[in-house]
Write a structure and sequence with these properties.
Its main location: cytoplasm. Strands 7-8-6-5-4-3-2-1-9 form a nine-stranded mixed sheet, with helices on both faces. It has a three-stranded antiparallel sheet with strand order 10-11-12, with no helix packed on it. The protein has a three-stranded antiparallel sheet with strand order 13-15-14. Helix content is about 40%, strand content about 20%. The protein has helices at about 30-45, 45-50, 70-85, 105-110, 125-130, 140-150, 170-180, 200-205, 220-235, 255-260, 290-295, 310-320, 330-335, 340-355, 370-375, 375-380, and strands spanning about 1-10, 55-60, 85-95, 115-120, 155-160, 185-190, 240-245, 245-250, 265-270, 275, 280-285, 300-305, 330, 360, 365. It folds into two domains: about 1-260, Aldolase class I (TIM Barrel); about 310-380, Arc Repressor Mutant, subunit A. The protein binds iron/sulfur cluster (SF4). Iron/sulfur cluster binds next to loops.
């Protein structure tokens, strides 16, 4: 049977963070209950699809999945297991916001088969957390983290953000070291991007004139130093970089994400969730009212359906695969597409190698340090 990854979207949060443009919003208990019912109905729609697949990983993301009660999460997983065949050793991750974790929920997650927690911490500095609009302090995160360890979770990721307004290089280093000393299995470290539609965009977006009212964003030089020191500091603590923004202890790389970068098929369930299945990409409707109505009436939830051409698939193979530090294999490219990588990308690879952006060793092609720094430029070169 073919391998499939599942993504389940929970679009609720206690409050909206200042930098966040994800599909999520605060909601009352009735709205959450209605959504969970709809989600269970949606899962049942996939009985036929599910029969040809074996699920290798499940990722419950959001939003804040940990906002749901343990009964609700239990019901979702009961339905998933009724419909899908999930590998016995599947990696099953839940995203958790430290302000919403309880012993009871942790116990419920274990019973549901969840074996990995991804904590959205972002910073150990409480001023920075406040600036981001997070609902928790570092101390509250520590309580949640310790509770998760006590409950037996031995695979934990911690998400961090650099280049927060008011943040200094020293403060970022302190965050990295403090978190690394907790010995999580995995750390994701992203640089803040000011996205349209967020509070930060109103404060710091293009053309804003009253920026002096708010703490300044770190300047380019500070941002670069934060970025450059991340890998070295995390290496000191035994984490290796396996993707542009992701670091793990040996053997603890996120299997769900590795699958995504290797173009394993995945099915997204829930409001706005994206899928890549049967060579087609699409996302589900993003409007809650429409989602609930369409579930009720049995209507199709899919939007922006795109069947990939061979060229699309080759481009994706390159820029998703090159995100991984191990790079891509020429043999695998040929097995997938029936053309050698030299036939399609020979000139581009040669040019990027001369520019010291790519390193070619036997069958493997990967980004150099310089290539990682300007990865978006490199990826654009592979557009056909
Ligand atoms: S908790 Fe996460 S999903 Fe929710 S608003 Fe904050 S950043 Fe966005």
């Amino acid at each position: 049977m073919q391998k499939l990854e599942l993504y389940i979207h929970i679009p609720f949060c206690v409050q909206k963070c200042a930098y966040c443009d994800f599909l999520s919003a605060p909601a009352n208990d009735a709205a959450k209950a209605e959504y969970v019912d709809a989600l269970k109905k949606e899962i049942q729609r996939y009985r036929e699809v599910a029969s040809s697949y074996q699920v290798s990983s499940v990722f419950v993301g959001g939003g804040t999945p940990s906002i749901l009660s343990c009964e609700q999460m239990g019901e979702i997983f009961k339905m998933l297991r009724q419909v899908f065949t999930i590998d016995r050793d599947a990696e099953i991750t839940i995203e958790a916001n430290p302000g919403t974790v309880t012993e009871e929920k942790l116990e419920g997650w274990k019973q549901a088969g969840i074996n990995r927690i991804s904590f959205g911490l972002q910073s150990v500095n409480n001023e920075e957390l406040k600036m981001l609009g997070r609902i928790h302090t570092y101390e509250e995160f520590r309580e949640s983290y310790d509770m998760a360890r006590q409950a037996g979770f031995d695979n934990i990721n911690i998400d961090l953000i650099s280049a927060i307004p008011g943040q200094t290089v020293k403060s970022w280093e302190h965050t990295l070291r403090t978190v690394a000393e907790l010995h999580p299995e995995h750390i994701s470290a992203y640089s803040l991007i000011i996205e349209e539609g967020t509070r930060f965009y109103q404060w710091y977006g293009k053309g804003q004139t009253d920026q002096e009212k708010y703490p300044p964003l770190p300047d380019e030089d500070a941002e670069r130093q934060m970025y450059e020191r991340t890998e070295g500091i995390l290496e000191e603590y035994g984490f290796h970089r396996y993707e542009i923004s992701n670091y793990a202890r040996e053997g603890k790389e996120c299997r769900h994400n590795l699958g995504y970068w290797s173009r394993v098929e995945y099915l997204g369930i829930g409001l706005g969730a994206s899928s890549f299945i049967s060579n087609t990409r699409y996302h589900l409707c993003t409007d809650m009212i429409s989602y609930i109505e369409r579930i009720g009436s049995g209507e199709d939830l899919r939007e922006e359906i795109e069947v990939l051409t061979k060229e699309d698939a080759m481009e994706e193979f390159m820029f998703l695969g090159l995100r991984r530090m191990q790079g891509i294999s020429g043999t695998q490219f040929e097995n997938c597409f029936g053309n050698t990588i030299e036939e399609i990308y020979g000139d581009v690879i040669e040019k990027l190698e001369q520019e010291k952006m790519l390193e070619v060793k036997e069958d493997k092609i990967r980004l150099t340090k310089r290539g990682i720094d300007v990865s978006n430029y490199v990826f654009c070169e592979f557009l056909l």
